[in-house]
GTP cyclohydrolase-2
Amino acid sequence: MNDPRPSDPRAAARAVDALHRGWPVTLHDDGATLTLFAVETGDAAALATLDPAGTAPLLISAGRAATLRLANQRAAATPDGPVLIERTDWLDFPAATAIADPQFDLRTPLKGPFRAVEGAHPALMAQALRLARIAGVLPAFFLLPAPAEDGAILTPADIDAHEDADRLTIAVRARLPVDGAEDAEIVAFRSPEASEHVALLIGEPNGNPPLVRLHSECLTGDVLGSLKCDCGPQLRAAIAEIKKAGWGVLLYLRQEGRAIGLINKLRAYALQDQGYDTVDANTRLGFAVDARDFRIAARMLTLLGQKRIRLLTNNPAKVAVLRDNGIDVIERVAHKLPPNPHNERYLATKRDRTGHQL
Ligand SMILES: Nc1nc2c(ncn2[C@@H]2O[C@H](COP(=O)(O)OP(=O)(O)OP(=O)(O)O)[C@@H](O)[C@H]2O)c(=O)[nH]1
Ligand SMILES: [Zn+2]
Protein backbone atom coordinates (compact mmCIF):
# COMPACT_ATOMS: atom_id res chain seq x y z
CA MET A 1 0.00 0.00 0.00
CA ASN A 2 1.29 3.42 -0.86
CA ASP A 3 1.05 6.16 1.68
CA PRO A 4 -2.09 8.11 0.81
CA ARG A 5 -0.49 11.36 2.04
CA PRO A 6 0.88 13.47 -0.84
CA SER A 7 4.66 13.88 -0.76
CA ASP A 8 5.79 16.90 1.21
CA PRO A 9 9.23 18.52 0.94
CA ARG A 10 8.61 20.16 4.33
CA ALA A 11 8.69 16.75 6.02
CA ALA A 12 12.20 16.28 4.64
CA ALA A 13 13.19 19.81 5.73
CA ARG A 14 11.97 19.05 9.26
CA ALA A 15 13.96 15.81 9.24
CA VAL A 16 17.12 17.62 8.12
CA ASP A 17 16.63 20.13 10.94
CA ALA A 18 16.09 17.29 13.44
CA LEU A 19 19.30 15.59 12.30
CA HIS A 20 21.24 18.83 12.81
CA ARG A 21 19.90 19.00 16.37
CA GLY A 22 20.48 15.38 17.30
CA TRP A 23 16.80 14.50 17.39
CA PRO A 24 15.43 11.18 16.12
CA VAL A 25 13.90 10.90 12.68
CA THR A 26 11.49 8.19 11.54
CA LEU A 27 11.54 7.07 7.93
CA HIS A 28 8.68 4.92 6.71
CA ASP A 29 7.58 3.36 3.47
CA ASP A 30 5.24 0.50 2.54
CA GLY A 31 4.79 -0.58 6.14
CA ALA A 32 8.54 -0.54 6.90
CA THR A 33 9.83 1.84 9.55
CA LEU A 34 13.33 2.94 10.58
CA THR A 35 13.97 5.39 13.40
CA LEU A 36 17.33 7.11 12.96
CA PHE A 37 19.54 8.63 15.62
CA ALA A 38 22.53 10.37 14.04
CA VAL A 39 25.88 9.52 15.59
CA GLU A 40 27.41 12.88 14.69
CA THR A 41 24.81 15.05 16.39
CA GLY A 42 23.41 12.69 19.02
CA ASP A 43 24.85 11.99 22.44
CA ALA A 44 25.20 9.07 24.82
CA ALA A 45 22.60 10.26 27.33
CA ALA A 46 19.89 10.69 24.70
CA LEU A 47 20.74 7.30 23.21
CA ALA A 48 20.39 5.67 26.63
CA THR A 49 16.90 7.17 26.96
CA LEU A 50 15.81 6.25 23.44
CA ASP A 51 17.35 2.77 23.48
CA PRO A 52 17.32 1.70 27.14
CA ALA A 53 18.06 -1.96 26.38
CA GLY A 54 21.08 -1.01 24.26
CA THR A 55 20.02 -3.09 21.27
CA ALA A 56 19.97 -0.49 18.49
CA PRO A 57 22.27 -1.61 15.63
CA LEU A 58 24.47 0.85 13.79
CA LEU A 59 23.80 1.75 10.16
CA ILE A 60 26.80 2.93 8.14
CA SER A 61 27.66 3.10 4.47
CA ALA A 62 29.51 0.50 2.43
CA GLY A 63 32.42 2.86 1.74
CA ARG A 64 32.93 3.32 5.45
CA ALA A 65 32.45 -0.41 6.04
CA ALA A 66 35.18 -1.17 3.51
CA THR A 67 37.50 1.16 5.40
CA LEU A 68 36.68 -0.78 8.57
CA ARG A 69 37.30 -4.07 6.71
CA LEU A 70 33.63 -5.07 6.92
CA ALA A 71 33.16 -5.03 3.18
CA ASN A 72 33.44 -8.76 2.63
CA GLN A 73 30.72 -9.58 5.10
CA ARG A 74 27.86 -7.75 3.42
CA ALA A 75 28.82 -6.13 0.16
CA ALA A 76 26.60 -3.26 -0.88
CA ALA A 77 26.63 -2.36 -4.56
CA THR A 78 27.87 1.21 -4.16
CA PRO A 79 30.08 3.05 -1.63
CA ASP A 80 27.03 4.95 -0.43
CA GLY A 81 24.92 1.78 -0.01
CA PRO A 82 23.93 0.56 3.50
CA VAL A 83 25.71 -1.83 5.90
CA LEU A 84 24.25 -2.67 9.30
CA ILE A 85 26.54 -3.48 12.25
CA GLU A 86 25.29 -5.70 15.05
CA ARG A 87 25.01 -4.03 18.44
CA THR A 88 27.34 -5.46 21.07
CA ASP A 89 28.22 -4.40 24.62
CA TRP A 90 31.32 -2.52 23.59
CA LEU A 91 29.52 -0.65 20.79
CA ASP A 92 28.73 2.37 22.95
CA PHE A 93 28.42 5.96 21.81
CA PRO A 94 32.18 6.74 21.72
CA ALA A 95 32.84 3.50 19.81
CA ALA A 96 30.11 4.46 17.32
CA THR A 97 31.72 7.87 16.90
CA ALA A 98 35.06 6.23 16.12
CA ILE A 99 33.29 4.03 13.55
CA ALA A 100 31.44 6.95 11.98
CA ASP A 101 34.14 9.59 11.85
CA PRO A 102 37.31 8.87 9.86
CA GLN A 103 39.23 11.61 11.66
CA PHE A 104 39.65 9.09 14.48
CA ASP A 105 40.90 6.27 12.22
CA LEU A 106 44.56 6.84 13.05
CA ARG A 107 44.02 7.91 16.65
CA THR A 108 41.51 5.35 17.92
CA PRO A 109 42.41 1.70 17.64
CA LEU A 110 38.99 0.34 16.81
CA LYS A 111 37.43 -2.26 19.04
CA GLY A 112 35.73 -5.27 17.59
CA PRO A 113 35.18 -7.68 16.10
CA PHE A 114 32.37 -6.16 14.12
CA ARG A 115 29.66 -8.25 12.61
CA ALA A 116 27.62 -6.98 9.70
CA VAL A 117 24.04 -8.23 9.84
CA GLU A 118 21.24 -8.35 7.33
CA GLY A 119 18.97 -5.32 7.60
CA ALA A 120 15.27 -5.94 7.12
CA HIS A 121 14.79 -2.86 4.91
CA PRO A 122 17.82 -2.24 2.66
CA ALA A 123 16.02 0.23 0.39
CA LEU A 124 14.90 2.30 3.36
CA MET A 125 18.39 2.12 4.90
CA ALA A 126 19.75 3.53 1.63
CA GLN A 127 17.25 6.39 1.96
CA ALA A 128 18.55 7.04 5.48
CA LEU A 129 22.08 7.44 4.12
CA ARG A 130 20.74 9.72 1.40
CA LEU A 131 19.17 11.86 4.11
CA ALA A 132 22.53 12.06 5.93
CA ARG A 133 24.14 13.41 2.79
CA ILE A 134 21.38 15.98 2.29
CA ALA A 135 21.72 17.08 5.92
CA GLY A 136 25.51 17.18 5.58
CA VAL A 137 26.05 14.91 8.61
CA LEU A 138 28.20 11.78 8.82
CA PRO A 139 26.38 8.79 7.30
CA ALA A 140 26.00 6.79 10.52
CA PHE A 141 22.83 6.15 12.54
CA PHE A 142 21.73 4.03 15.44
CA LEU A 143 18.45 2.39 14.39
CA LEU A 144 16.22 2.93 17.43
CA PRO A 145 13.75 0.27 18.58
CA ALA A 146 10.73 2.59 18.36
CA PRO A 147 9.75 5.96 16.88
CA ALA A 148 10.27 8.85 19.30
CA GLU A 149 7.12 10.69 20.33
CA ASP A 150 8.21 14.12 19.12
CA GLY A 151 10.52 12.92 16.33
CA ALA A 152 10.30 14.05 12.72
CA ILE A 153 8.53 11.62 10.36
CA LEU A 154 9.00 11.32 6.62
CA THR A 155 8.85 9.01 3.59
CA PRO A 156 11.29 8.54 0.69
CA ALA A 157 8.73 10.37 -1.47
CA ASP A 158 9.13 13.39 0.81
CA ILE A 159 12.88 13.31 0.16
CA ASP A 160 12.21 13.07 -3.57
CA ALA A 161 9.93 16.11 -3.32
CA HIS A 162 12.62 17.96 -1.37
CA GLU A 163 15.12 17.28 -4.17
CA ASP A 164 12.64 17.74 -7.04
CA ALA A 165 14.31 19.99 -9.61
CA ASP A 166 10.95 20.60 -11.31
CA ARG A 167 9.85 22.60 -8.26
CA LEU A 168 12.50 25.27 -8.85
CA THR A 169 11.09 28.71 -9.63
CA ILE A 170 12.59 32.08 -10.51
CA ALA A 171 12.36 34.38 -7.49
CA VAL A 172 14.02 37.62 -8.58
CA ARG A 173 16.10 39.26 -11.31
CA ALA A 174 18.36 42.30 -10.94
CA ARG A 175 21.25 44.03 -12.68
CA LEU A 176 24.61 42.99 -11.22
CA PRO A 177 27.71 44.53 -12.74
CA VAL A 178 30.59 42.15 -11.97
CA ASP A 179 34.31 42.28 -12.56
CA GLY A 180 34.72 41.36 -16.21
CA ALA A 181 31.04 41.74 -17.12
CA GLU A 182 29.53 45.07 -16.18
CA ASP A 183 26.33 44.36 -18.08
CA ALA A 184 25.47 41.20 -16.13
CA GLU A 185 22.06 40.36 -14.67
CA ILE A 186 21.56 37.99 -11.74
CA VAL A 187 18.58 35.65 -11.49
CA ALA A 188 17.94 33.84 -8.19
CA PHE A 189 15.86 30.69 -7.85
CA ARG A 190 13.82 29.19 -5.04
CA SER A 191 14.12 25.46 -4.56
CA PRO A 192 12.24 23.03 -2.29
CA GLU A 193 15.43 22.28 -0.31
CA ALA A 194 15.89 26.03 0.26
CA SER A 195 19.16 26.27 -1.70
CA GLU A 196 19.37 29.66 -3.41
CA HIS A 197 20.83 28.72 -6.79
CA VAL A 198 21.65 31.66 -9.05
CA ALA A 199 22.28 32.38 -12.71
CA LEU A 200 24.44 35.22 -13.98
CA LEU A 201 23.36 36.32 -17.46
CA ILE A 202 26.29 37.90 -19.24
CA GLY A 203 26.26 39.93 -22.47
CA GLU A 204 23.45 40.33 -25.02
CA PRO A 205 21.88 37.50 -27.04
CA ASN A 206 23.45 37.61 -30.52
CA GLY A 207 21.64 34.82 -32.34
CA ASN A 208 24.18 32.15 -31.35
CA PRO A 209 23.49 29.58 -28.62
CA PRO A 210 24.73 30.89 -25.26
CA LEU A 211 28.01 29.70 -23.74
CA VAL A 212 26.99 28.15 -20.40
CA ARG A 213 29.04 27.22 -17.35
CA LEU A 214 27.75 25.02 -14.49
CA HIS A 215 29.79 26.02 -11.46
CA SER A 216 29.35 24.07 -8.21
CA GLU A 217 29.78 26.04 -5.02
CA CYS A 218 33.22 25.86 -3.41
CA LEU A 219 33.51 28.24 -0.47
CA THR A 220 37.19 27.51 -0.01
CA GLY A 221 38.08 28.02 -3.67
CA ASP A 222 35.55 30.66 -4.76
CA VAL A 223 35.81 32.94 -1.72
CA LEU A 224 38.95 32.12 0.26
CA GLY A 225 41.26 31.59 -2.72
CA SER A 226 42.09 27.97 -1.89
CA LEU A 227 44.84 26.56 -4.09
CA LYS A 228 43.76 22.95 -3.41
CA CYS A 229 41.29 22.95 -6.31
CA ASP A 230 40.72 24.84 -9.54
CA CYS A 231 37.33 26.33 -8.65
CA GLY A 232 38.28 29.97 -8.05
CA PRO A 233 40.23 30.42 -11.29
CA GLN A 234 37.57 28.43 -13.20
CA LEU A 235 34.83 30.72 -11.87
CA ARG A 236 36.56 33.92 -12.90
CA ALA A 237 37.74 32.48 -16.23
CA ALA A 238 34.18 31.35 -17.00
CA ILE A 239 32.88 34.91 -16.71
CA ALA A 240 35.68 36.11 -18.99
CA GLU A 241 35.09 33.32 -21.53
CA ILE A 242 31.34 33.96 -21.67
CA LYS A 243 31.92 37.67 -22.14
CA LYS A 244 34.42 36.93 -24.91
CA ALA A 245 31.90 34.62 -26.62
CA GLY A 246 29.41 37.52 -26.73
CA TRP A 247 26.85 36.20 -24.31
CA GLY A 248 25.96 33.32 -22.05
CA VAL A 249 24.98 32.10 -18.62
CA LEU A 250 26.94 31.15 -15.51
CA LEU A 251 24.91 28.89 -13.21
CA TYR A 252 26.16 29.01 -9.64
CA LEU A 253 24.86 25.78 -8.10
CA ARG A 254 24.79 25.41 -4.33
CA GLN A 255 26.33 21.95 -4.42
CA GLU A 256 29.24 22.51 -2.04
CA GLY A 257 31.76 19.68 -1.97
CA ARG A 258 30.10 17.83 -4.87
CA ALA A 259 26.93 17.94 -2.74
CA ILE A 260 28.21 16.48 0.53
CA GLY A 261 28.25 19.94 2.12
CA LEU A 262 31.05 22.12 3.45
CA ILE A 263 31.71 20.26 6.69
CA ASN A 264 31.92 16.88 5.02
CA LYS A 265 34.12 18.34 2.26
CA LEU A 266 36.48 19.62 4.94
CA ARG A 267 36.45 16.15 6.51
CA ALA A 268 37.54 14.90 3.09
CA TYR A 269 40.29 17.54 3.11
CA ALA A 270 41.46 16.28 6.50
CA LEU A 271 41.70 12.79 4.98
CA GLN A 272 43.62 14.29 2.06
CA ASP A 273 46.05 15.70 4.65
CA GLN A 274 46.67 12.04 5.55
CA GLY A 275 47.45 11.17 1.93
CA TYR A 276 44.12 10.00 0.46
CA ASP A 277 43.05 11.48 -2.86
CA THR A 278 39.72 13.25 -3.45
CA VAL A 279 37.98 10.02 -4.56
CA ASP A 280 39.18 7.79 -1.70
CA ALA A 281 38.51 10.52 0.85
CA ASN A 282 34.82 10.65 -0.12
CA THR A 283 34.59 6.86 -0.10
CA ARG A 284 36.25 6.55 3.32
CA LEU A 285 33.72 9.04 4.65
CA GLY A 286 30.95 6.87 3.25
CA PHE A 287 29.69 9.11 0.46
CA ALA A 288 29.40 8.73 -3.30
CA VAL A 289 32.36 10.25 -5.12
CA ASP A 290 30.05 12.79 -6.76
CA ALA A 291 26.55 13.31 -5.32
CA ARG A 292 25.60 16.33 -7.42
CA ASP A 293 22.26 16.46 -9.25
CA PHE A 294 22.72 18.38 -12.49
CA ARG A 295 18.99 18.16 -13.30
CA ILE A 296 18.77 21.37 -11.28
CA ALA A 297 20.88 23.06 -13.96
CA ALA A 298 18.65 21.71 -16.74
CA ARG A 299 15.61 23.13 -14.95
CA MET A 300 17.28 26.52 -14.48
CA LEU A 301 18.21 26.72 -18.17
CA THR A 302 14.68 25.72 -19.14
CA LEU A 303 13.20 28.43 -16.91
CA LEU A 304 15.60 30.90 -18.54
CA GLY A 305 14.43 29.76 -21.99
CA GLN A 306 17.88 28.47 -22.99
CA LYS A 307 17.52 24.93 -24.29
CA ARG A 308 20.24 25.01 -26.95
CA ILE A 309 23.66 25.75 -25.52
CA ARG A 310 27.44 25.39 -25.71
CA LEU A 311 28.80 24.04 -22.43
CA LEU A 312 32.06 25.06 -20.78
CA THR A 313 33.28 21.96 -18.91
CA ASN A 314 35.73 19.08 -18.76
CA ASN A 315 33.12 16.84 -17.13
CA PRO A 316 31.20 14.60 -19.59
CA ALA A 317 28.63 13.79 -16.86
CA LYS A 318 27.36 17.38 -17.00
CA VAL A 319 26.83 17.10 -20.77
CA ALA A 320 25.05 13.75 -20.40
CA VAL A 321 22.64 14.86 -17.65
CA LEU A 322 21.72 18.09 -19.44
CA ARG A 323 21.07 16.17 -22.66
CA ASP A 324 18.93 13.63 -20.82
CA ASN A 325 16.89 16.48 -19.39
CA GLY A 326 15.88 18.38 -22.48
CA ILE A 327 18.92 20.60 -23.07
CA ASP A 328 20.54 20.41 -26.49
CA VAL A 329 24.28 20.71 -25.79
CA ILE A 330 25.63 21.40 -29.26
CA GLU A 331 29.27 21.68 -28.17
CA ARG A 332 31.49 20.98 -25.16
CA VAL A 333 34.11 23.68 -24.70
CA ALA A 334 37.14 22.69 -22.56
CA HIS A 335 37.70 24.75 -19.40
CA LYS A 336 41.27 24.05 -18.30
CA LEU A 337 43.27 26.36 -16.12
CA PRO A 338 47.00 26.11 -15.40
CA PRO A 339 47.76 23.91 -12.36
CA ASN A 340 49.57 25.10 -9.23
CA PRO A 341 51.76 22.97 -6.94
CA HIS A 342 48.84 22.45 -4.51
CA ASN A 343 46.21 21.27 -6.99
CA GLU A 344 48.33 19.19 -9.38
CA ARG A 345 47.37 15.92 -7.72
CA TYR A 346 43.68 16.92 -7.49
CA LEU A 347 43.61 17.65 -11.22
CA ALA A 348 45.42 14.38 -11.99
CA THR A 349 42.83 12.50 -9.93
CA LYS A 350 40.02 14.25 -11.80
CA ARG A 351 41.62 13.14 -15.06
CA ASP A 352 42.47 9.57 -13.99
CA ARG A 353 39.58 8.62 -11.71
CA THR A 354 36.49 10.78 -12.26
CA GLY A 355 36.37 10.91 -16.06
CA HIS A 356 37.26 14.58 -16.48
CA GLN A 357 38.76 15.34 -19.87
CA LEU A 358 41.85 17.16 -18.66
N1 LIG B 1 33.96 16.22 -1.72
C1 LIG B 1 34.89 16.97 -2.27
N2 LIG B 1 34.49 18.00 -3.04
C2 LIG B 1 35.44 18.75 -3.62
C3 LIG B 1 36.81 18.50 -3.44
N3 LIG B 1 37.50 19.44 -4.13
C4 LIG B 1 36.58 20.22 -4.74
N4 LIG B 1 35.34 19.81 -4.44
C5 LIG B 1 34.06 20.32 -4.91
O1 LIG B 1 33.94 19.91 -6.26
C6 LIG B 1 33.09 20.81 -6.97
C7 LIG B 1 33.79 21.14 -8.27
O2 LIG B 1 33.84 19.96 -9.01
P1 LIG B 1 35.06 19.49 -9.87
O3 LIG B 1 35.06 17.98 -9.82
O4 LIG B 1 36.34 20.20 -9.49
O5 LIG B 1 34.76 19.94 -11.32
P2 LIG B 1 33.48 19.66 -12.20
O6 LIG B 1 32.49 20.72 -11.86
O7 LIG B 1 33.02 18.24 -12.09
O8 LIG B 1 34.06 19.72 -13.67
P3 LIG B 1 34.41 20.94 -14.62
O9 LIG B 1 33.12 21.42 -15.23
O10 LIG B 1 35.29 20.34 -15.67
O11 LIG B 1 35.11 21.98 -13.81
C8 LIG B 1 32.84 21.96 -6.01
O12 LIG B 1 31.54 21.78 -5.44
C9 LIG B 1 33.90 21.80 -4.93
O13 LIG B 1 33.47 22.27 -3.67
C10 LIG B 1 37.19 17.41 -2.61
O14 LIG B 1 38.37 17.10 -2.42
N5 LIG B 1 36.18 16.69 -2.04
ZN1 LIG C 1 37.07 24.02 -5.14
Q: What stands out?
A: The chain has a mean pLDDT of 93.
